[in-house]
Specification:
This protein is an alpha+beta fold. It folds into two domains: 65 residues, lambda repressor-like DNA-binding domains (434 Repressor (Amino-terminal Domain), Orthogonal Bundle); 183 residues, Beta-Lactamase (2-Layer Sandwich), CATH 3.30.450. A five-stranded antiparallel β-sheet has the order 2-1-5-4-3, with helices on both faces. A hairpin with a 2-residue loop joins strand 3 and strand 4. Helix 2 packs across helix 3, helix 4 packs antiparallel against helix 5 and helix 9 packs antiparallel against helix 10.
Length: 268
């Protein structure tokens, strides 16, 4: 988003959400006339009005702060370091979730799929796929799981149904870019789409005669086959930007053979 004034940002978000002035005015319980004046800069908003409109537009906490700043107010929401004392209870919950997922992989990532933490099952999966031990997370140079999935020289050669998996993933990143409106997520999407051989988002998924309830990622390497599906969890009531942008991706075996491989790795 290149707009910097409150009026321009408000109008940009309303149009991005596909709302008319009347529709947003009804949601926010303000008059359409007042909303119109706000969008052209004829009226300056109060801090309470900014927050009311941000909530009505379902803006992420980071974008709520940006809207407040554009209107001349201090940010409301804090962005804490993941390892800081402010997020101690969140870290405890993350550690618990990672531990409970054993022996299957689990990864903690940020909004743009930068790896923040993983459990032992995740370490074993990474070691199997890359033939290297995972290095400690480095905030200055994070491993990006989106690039690892989509780039031609990373995991792509090891995924039997890569095209279907990539198409599903790219649509998820596109939805993220639409929802959060940040230049960073938009840049991630464009970077992923620029890799050679990437399917177009508009491409129809392959129609198979039989399919399961979820799309499993089928890894195949050196005679070992792993079929896994994933779940994504977020914190339900975040009051901190970092907490809101955390995701926990858990991998589960899609068949008994895959489950047996992870149990054998854990017992080795």
């Amino acid at each position: 988003m290149e707009t910097t004034t409150f009026a321009a940002r408000l109008r940009w978000w309303r149009e991005r959400r596909g709302l008319s002035q009347l529709a947003l005015a009804n949601i926010a319980e303000v008059s359409q006339r007042h909303l119109s004046f706000l969008e052209v800069g004829r009226t300056a908003p109060s801090r309470e009005m900014v927050l009311k409109l941000a909530a009505s537009l379902d803006l992420p906490l980071r974008q709520q702060n940006a809207l407040l700043l554009a209107a001349g107010f201090a940010p409301r929401w804090r962005e804490s370091a993941l390892g800081g004392q402010e997020l101690a209870v969140v870290n405890q919950a993350l550690d618990f979730m990672l531990e409970q997922q054993e022996p299957y992989p689990a990864f903690v990532v940020d909004r743009r799929w930068n790896l923040l933490r993983l459990n032992r099952g995740g370490e074993r999966l990474v070691a199997f796929l890359t033939d290297t031990a995972p290095r400690p997370a480095d905030p200055a140079s994070p491993v990006n799981l989106a690039d690892a999935l989509v780039a031609p020289d990373a995991l792509r050669p090891l995924i039997v149904n890569w095209r279907e998996v990539a198409l599903h993933f790219l649509r998820g990143v596109q939805a993220d870019a639409t929802a959060d409106g940040t230049a960073e997520t938009a840049a991630l999407l464009q970077r992923l789409l620029a890799y050679p051989g990437v399917p177009r988002i508009s491409e129809a998924p392959a129609i198979e005669e039989a399919h399961g309830p979820v799309l499993a990622i089928h890894f195949s390497k050196g005679g070992t086959s792993l079929k896994l599906f994933t779940t994504l969890a977020t914190l339900g009531t975040p009051q901190d930007i970092t907490a809101q942008e955390i995701r926990i991706e858990c991998f589960f075996p899609a068949d008994a053979a895959s489950a047996a491989v992870f149990k054998a790795w854990a017992d080795a």
